[in-house]
Write a structure and sequence with these properties.
Organism: Phytophthora palmivora
CATH class of the largest domain: Alpha Beta
CATH topology of the largest domain: Nucleotidyltransferase, domain 5
GO molecular function: endonuclease activity; hydrolase activity; nucleic acid binding; RNA-directed DNA polymerase activity
Strand order of the largest sheet: 9-8-7-10-11
Keywords: Endonuclease, Hydrolase, Nuclease, Nucleotidyltransferase, RNA-directed DNA polymerase, Transferase
Number of domains: 4
Shape: elongated
GO biological process, one term: DNA integration
Helix content: 25-40%
Domain Integrase catalytic: 412-577
Radius of gyration: 36 Å
Length: 631
């Protein structure tokens, strides 16, 4: 209809009655009247479940040859014309109307003249209040939003995010349609690349009627990697389904910087799709007001000496000594010596967002149930929180897809526990990883044996002893003091003359594995397995980006509670938990104790529990697009 100047609308009357009933189906239409008469319909009556679809299908089929200038929808026919082939618009329009009427006459379709709107002349000018109201509404719309253009099947269409545009005869970009929606809960777990690709898929679905055509169109995006999205080196099942859907369309993807892609950005940031209170702790404060359980408790603690205990339930009265109110946040602790934790009200959205931040981001590493629970419980508390965490981890799509299933474990032979965090260190290599942009195919793993702190460095499979020593100096020596002993398995990289000379100069003593038991260094073997699972989870969709994610993986491992110590490596090393986005505002800081006393207590505790706690998990690798390991 783009460019048309004359329009006419026709309305068909009694269209159902032009369709004969199939003889075998006539008895199904029988009706009985109060007088006892039995009537049967010989033509299609109104009210049959499939009558509208049958009639619409008939009208569409009959007028299909005229669809270039006459669109139909049920009993409505819309005729549109423009000047062409040297004829005026009026002449062309009359010819179009004549062809439409010929089809109606041939098939005995009749028009309702009262509802037809044809070209008229010398009509009386009528302008009443309802017309003025309509005019004012149109004028307001013109001031507040752009006028949408009609699609032109012969012109060049572009799709930017969920915005369909077309260039008019003067070269101006005109908007045909806007579309946007809020991400579903499961879609929020997707990687950024998948979310951008999801926007493209959503746009193609919404604009399918305009885009499913032979002529090409352009998709503009401010996410540059989408330019090669249609031919990725590795495909997930979801990506394969999407590419099969994209194959139906003739389009190319072009990059447009975000500062130029403002319309699509505005749609993706619609204020009615944003949370009213983006700050997590502000949302918690507001949620207290809607929680019948915690509202009286917050009010009681706010009133101080004037508080009335009769507003509390018997259970709350018995546990009131466990609660504190600070900064509008309710805190809970079982024992006065425990760190206080923020109480999360009964709001599923809040709980889901907290678990998502504690489990899904790269800095969290998609760790297991126990480690995720320990991370969340450092800052937050709500009833049955462990069950929430267990269910969330169990239903995490990424974890279920890339992590191996559990197997029975056998105890490892552990070495004597050192007396200080940095007295002893273990090393190992992990190889067989996809080549990254720098040509690296392996990871050098350093583990402090008391605190379990991990340091990682990417290396090539041709790494020499000298290069490994340089990585040691850059990744460990630059941040910590020198260890007295280094434990490693028997590989040539640790037995070369350079390593022997280096360790002698540094005052370290290399402890080699025994010949009949090559896995003396059990803790590094275990770290390697956790490292493999974490890398798979973070890099599942882009395996070659693993080296860029190593800092995140290192942080995730060092911020996870270790089963053998009961603490995170960060806490054992610095006597404090690191700040993360989840605890950046509104969090609590535990009291700092004497460093010397704490380290002695930690060392004593670890010496007692580590031999019984060290376990080895036998891993089976399934769906290994990120393949590990060759040691």
């Amino acid at each position: 209809m783009s460019g048309c100047t004359l329009y006419s609308a026709l309305d068909l009357v009694d269209g159902y009655y032009q369709i004969l009933m199939r003889e075998s189906d006539i008895p199904l239409t029988a009706v009985s009247t109060p007088s006892g008469m039995l009537w049967e319909w010989l033509v299609m009556p109104e009210g049959l479940s499939n009558a509208p679809a049958t009639f619409n299908r008939l009208v569409t089929q009959l007028f299909r040859p005229l669809r270039t200038f006459a669109q139909t929808y049920f009993d409505d026919i819309f005729v549109h014309s423009r000047a062409e082939d040297g004829q005026t618009a009026m002449e062309v329009h009359l010819r179009h109307l004549h062809r439409v009427l010929e089809v109606m006459r041939a098939n005995k379709f009749y028009a309702n003249t009262d509802k037809c709107d044809l070209l008229k002349k010398d009509g009386d000018w009528v302008w009443e209040q309802q017309h003025q109201d309509a005019f004012d509404s149109i004028r307001a719309s013109l001031q507040q939003a752009p006028v949408l253009a009609l699609p032109d099947e012969t012109s060049h269409l572009t799709s930017s995010g969920t915005l369909l545009t077309i260039k008019d005869d003067e070269g101006h970009e005109r908007v045909i349609s806007f579309q946007s929606r809020q991400l579903k809960a499961a879609e929020r777990n997707n990687l950024v690349h998948d979310k951008e690709l999801l926007a493209v898929k959503y746009a193609l679905v919404k604009f399918r009627v305009h885009l499913l055509r032979p002529s090409p169109f352009v998709v503009y995006t401010d996410h540059a990697p989408l330019r090669t999205a249609t031919n990725p080196p590795h495909l997930s099942q979801r990506m394969a389904r999407w590419l099969s859907f994209f194959a139906e369309y003739n389009f190319r993807v072009e990059y447009k910087p975000g500062k130029l892609n403002v319309l699509a950005d505005a749609l993706s940031r619609r204020p009615d799709y944003e949370l009213a209170h983006a700050d997590l702790y502000d949302r918690i404060r507001l949620a207290y007001q809607e929680d019948e359980n915690y509202t009286p408790l917050v009010q009681f603690l706010s009133d101080g000496k004037d508080a009335k205990v009769d507003r509390l339930s018997p259970r709350q009265r018995a546990q009131i000594h466990r609660y504190e109110l600070a900064g509008g946040l309710l805190h809970y602790r079982v024992d006065p010596r425990d760190p206080r934790r923020v109480v999360v009200p009964n709001d599923e959205g809040l709980k889901y967002d907290i678990l998502l931040e504690a489990h899904d981001p790269p800095m969290s590493g998609h760790l297991g149930r126990e480690k995720t629970y320990q991370m969340v419980s450092q800052t937050f508390w709500w009833p049955s929180m462990y069950k929430w965490v267990a269910h969330y981890v169990k239903t995490c799509e990424t974890c279920q897809r890339v992590k191996p299933s559990g197997h029975a474990s056998a105890p490892l032979q552990s070495l004597p526990v050192p007396a200080d965090c940095w007295k002893s260190m273990s090393l190992d290599f992990v190889f067989g990883i996809p080549v990254d942009d720098m040509g690296n195919t392996g990871i050098l793993v350093f583990v402090r044996r008391l605190s379990k702190m991990v340091h990682l460095a990417s290396v090539r499979d041709t790494v020499t002893g000298k290069q490994a020593a340089q990585q040691f100096l850059d990744s460990v020596f630059g941040y910590h003091d020198l260890p007295e002993t280094i434990v490693s398995d028997r590989v040539p990289r640790f037995t070369g003359a350079f390593w022997d000379t280096l360790f002698q100069l540094l005052g370290t003593k290399l402890t080699m594995s025994t010949a009949d038991h090559p896995q003396t260094d059990g803790q590094t073997e275990r770290v390697n397995r956790v490292l493999e699972d974490t890398l798979r989870s973070i890099c599942a969709e882009a395996p070659r980006s693993w080296s860029d994610q190593l800092p995140m993986v290192e942080f995730a491992l060092n911020n996870a509670v270790h089963a053998s110590t009961g603490f995170t490596p960060f806490y054992l090393n610095g006597l404090r938990h690191p700040q993360v986005p989840l605890t950046l505002r509104g969090g609590t800081v535990a009291s700092i104790v004497s460093g010397g006393e704490a380290r002695k207590a930690f060392s004593s505790q670890v010496s007692e529990i580590e031999p019984e706690s060290l376990k080895r998990q036998l891993s089976s690798f399934i769906d290994d697009r990120l393949t590990l390991i060759s040691r």
